[in-house]
Design goal:
- There is one protein chain.
- With about 500 residues, this protein is α/β, with parallel strands linked by helices.
- It has three domains: about 5-285, HUPs (Rossmann fold), CATH 3.40.50.620; about 305-425, Four Helix Bundle (Hemerythrin (Met), subunit A), CATH 1.20.120.640; about 445-490.
- About 50% of the residues lie in helices and about 15% in strands.
- The chain is built from 16 helices and 15 strands.
- It has helices spanning about 40-55, 75-80, 85-105, 120-130, 160-165, 205-215, 230-245, 275-285, 285-295, 305-330, 340-365, 370-390, 400-420, 425-440, 445-460, 465-475, and strands spanning about 5, 10-15, 25-30, 60-65, 135-140, 140-145, 180-185, 200-205, 220-225, 250-255, 260, 265, 300-305, 480-485, 485-490.
- The strands form five sheets. The protein has a four-stranded parallel β-sheet, with helices on both faces.
- Helix 7 (about 230-245) links the parallel strand 9 (about 220-225) and strand 10.
- Helix 2 (about 75-80) packs across helix 3, helix 9 packs across helix 10 (about 305-330) and helix 11 packs antiparallel against helix 12 (about 370-390).
- The chain is elongated, with a radius of gyration of 28 Å.
- The two termini are about 40 Å apart.
- It binds one RNA strand of 76 nucleotides through helix 1, helix 5, helix 7, helix 10 and helix 12.
RNA sequence: GGCGGCAUAGCCAAGUGGCUAAGGCAGCGGUCUGCAAAACCGUUAUUCCCCGGUUCAAGUCCGGGUGCCGCCUCCA
């Protein structure tokens, strides 16, 4: 089955045809380095991480470029406010970004270029546009002339006349057309600057992506991605200037992820509902956030709330419980050499064939415009199937059981590799989950374990009333006990 | 005002023309258990916002309505 991608440029799902057989060039707009990453950045990062992971799993040699916009008004503003250089601000937030991404299990892109390190490319590109008559310089500023380029508005599906009619009164009368945008901005007193043919200045917002994508991926590449808010004006401007300069399309497919809402409201500074990644992962295992994001289709809006993360946590616990049982079952198996009887061989083959069917379905879901929600449905089917196996095949010879479980493990490894989950050791997952929940709820571990010990004593004396009283008491604190042959374990509900 | 999107069970969420409308969370009944938990089995939408149309056949396509949301200004 072939890969399908919903292309923003055509608003249709299309069959993906790479420029070069077996290879994919993808450029995703990264962050502007003036603040820490929030849950919205996390979504975009996770979405494109999974896109790349899946394409790689399908055998494509993917070159993934994600930039840092490290020169911008907001960075300058912040630097001035703190009385430090823009480099210091950028370095700080790039570092924070990298930490967050690592915590979220987001793989580092192939190339992570910075605007400030590509000034020559940027200036060359603007010069080319000026030479070809697509750009004009006024007082040290350089603007892109949208009228000289016939296809402006194509990507975002906007109509030029209507946009001009609806445009705000533009105070900048230097522009020939109010929709013209800056390629190069003359630097004001005290602002950082670079020397250029137009004097001291710095690049406009969009040009750095055009320059850097071209540098690493060529004039035309396969996929360009970003958050849906970037469609206009950023990507519209980017594609206009790139295409004007090279005479070739910038990207063949445009992918845009939907927004994260917070408790059904738009996330914004004025509402004060911005959730930094660092805050979230204090309270939840990073894979909880990933699972939450991946349970919705990447183009749909997603509604972030405490309860939605709590639900995602329950789902992840379900998966890790099975992973843990699998591991324990495998560890207990003896290396007997009992030959598989006909029945158990058949059963084994039966299960393995079902496993493989789920893998096919999972891959097919991912092929269909990266439908992670559907793919996760198959992951949970695999969880149930594995549990079934463990419950139903108690009498299978260990050797055959082990073979089957090893196959199941491979399947989970595949799912985990593509979605970027199941990367913790199962035991470790529950340890860290417990610690997180204890901290979050301010519970005292010592006290809990002491009560459990008291209950153990009561149980050994068959004092069920006392044992149950303690269970109840702990239950009030959402502590769930599990008695087993080798003691009592507990977790937080 | 312009452009675009969404509406599926108590909640979250796939499915875009045709077998029984995925999956998760929550709930209920059962198996297991000293009691529980986990796991398993069963169960929870005769129906997909409303009205009309196309079709042998529609949640899925078309028209209209209602409601919600995003973009058009910095934004993942």
């Amino acid at each position: 089955m072939s890969q399908k991608i919903f292309n923003t440029a055509t608003r249709k799902k299309e069959v993906f045809q790479p420029i070069k057989e077996g290879a994919v060039g993808i450029y995703v707009c990264g962050i502007t380095t003036y603040d820490v990453c929030h849950v919205g950045h996390a979504r975009a990062a996770i979405v494109f991480d999974v896109v790349v992971r899946h394409l790689r799993a399908r055998g494509y040699n993917v070159t993934y470029v994600k930039n840092f916009t490290d020169v911008d008004d907001k960075i300058i503003e912040r630097a001035n406010k703190e009385g430090v250089s823009i480099t210091e601000i950028s370095e700080r937030y790039i570092k924070a970004h990298d930490e967050d991404m690592a915590a979220l299990g987001v793989q580092t892109p192939t190339v992570t270029p910075r605007a400030t390190e590509h000034m020559e490319d940027i200036i060359a590109l603007i010069s080319a546009l000026e030479k070809q008559g697509y750009a004009y310089c006024v007082d040290g500023d350089v603007y892109f002339s949208i009228n000289s380029y016939g296809k402006y508005g194509n990507l975002s599906g906007r109509n030029l006349e209507e946009m001009i009619a609806g445009a705000r009164v533009d105070v900048n009368d230097k522009k020939k057309n109010p929709l013209d945008f800056a390629l190069w901005k003359k630097s004001k007193e005290g602002e950082p600057y670079w020397e250029s043919p137009w004097g001291k200045g710095r690049p406009g917002w969009h040009i750095e992506c055009s320059a850097m994508s071209r540098r690493y991926l060529g004039d035309t590449f396969d996929i360009h991605g970003g958050g849906e808010d970037l469609i206009f004006p950023h990507h519209e401007n980017e594609t206009a200037q790139s295409q004007a300069a090279t005479g070739k399309p910038l990207a063949n497919y445009w992918i845009h992820n939907g927004f994260v809402k917070i408790d059904s409201e738009k996330m914004s500074k004025s509402l004060g509902n911005i959730f930094p990644v660092k805050e979230i992962i204090k309270n939840y295992h990073p894979e909880v956030l990933r699972l939450f994001m991946l349970q919705s289709h990447y183009r749909s809006p997603v509604d972030y709330s405490e309860s939605s993360l709590t639900e995602a946590r329950a789902g992840l616990i379900r998966c890790y419980t099975t992973l843990k049982i699998m591991k324990e079952t495998l560890d207990k198996l003896s290396v007997d050499t009992v030959k598989a009887d006909k029945k158990s061989s058949e059963n084994r083959n039966n299960y393995i064939s079902k496993f493989n069917k789920l893998v096919d379905k999972f891959d097919a879901a991912m092929d269909d415009d990266f439908n992670t929600a559907q793919a996760l449905g198959h992951v949970f089917d695999m969880v149930r199937l594995t549990n079934n196996f463990i419950v139903d095949e108690k009498h299978m010879p260990d050797y055959v059981k082990a073979e089957t479980l090893e196959e199941a493990k491979k399947v989970f490894d595949h799912f985990g590799t593509v979605l970027g989950i199941f990367h913790s050791d199962a035991d470790q997952f529950f340890v860290s989950d417990k610690e997180t929940e204890l901290r979050k709820r301010g519970l005292d571990k010592e006290k809990i374990e002491d009560l459990i010990k008291q209950r153990q004593v009561a149980r050994s004396q068959k004092d069920w009333a006392k044992a149950d009283a303690i269970r109840q008491e702990l239950g009030q604190l959402h502590i769930v006990l599990k008695d087993s042959a080798n003691g009592t374990s507990w977790m937080i509900d």
